[in-house]
Specification:
This protein has 151 residues and is α+β, with helices and mostly antiparallel strands. It has one helix at 118-143, and strands at residues 14-17, 26-28, 33-36, 39-44, 46-60, 66-80, 93-97, 104-108. Strand 5 and strand 6 (66-80) form a beta hairpin.
Amino acid sequence: MTRKHRVIKHKESIKVVSENIDKNWKYDEDMKKFYHPIYPNKYFDPICSNNNVGYKVKKKNRFGKEYTEKKNTVFSTLYPYISPEDDPRNLGFTLSANNSALFFTVVPNKMQSFWDTRRGKRFISYIAYRKRRDANRKTWMKENGIKINNE
């Protein structure tokens, strides 16, 4: 007896232009390309970042009994692809591979500021804490009549 193999059919994904891109980017549905007023007469291919979203649907069988069925849809988020060498204004996006060749992430060409990272935000709060600590120390030393060496 032969084993039945499950055939995976191609599902058409729902394509959505990302909200993280510059607002002047326009996506042409007919040509399936991006264009921007800063780069006149140039069209850029999209990069797709796919997300699989699952949801449940209630159905009834032919006997009237209700059951839930799991369904999945694929959402493709589109970004304009420009290589960093061809992007002097840093408006586009490129691909960044992790340790394997199978997984990648979409990365903006714009350099990320240290202060926008998680570590930078924590460092800002640490600087504020140090300033509060020094101010509290100075007021405590003035109240107790202890001479401050720095002044």
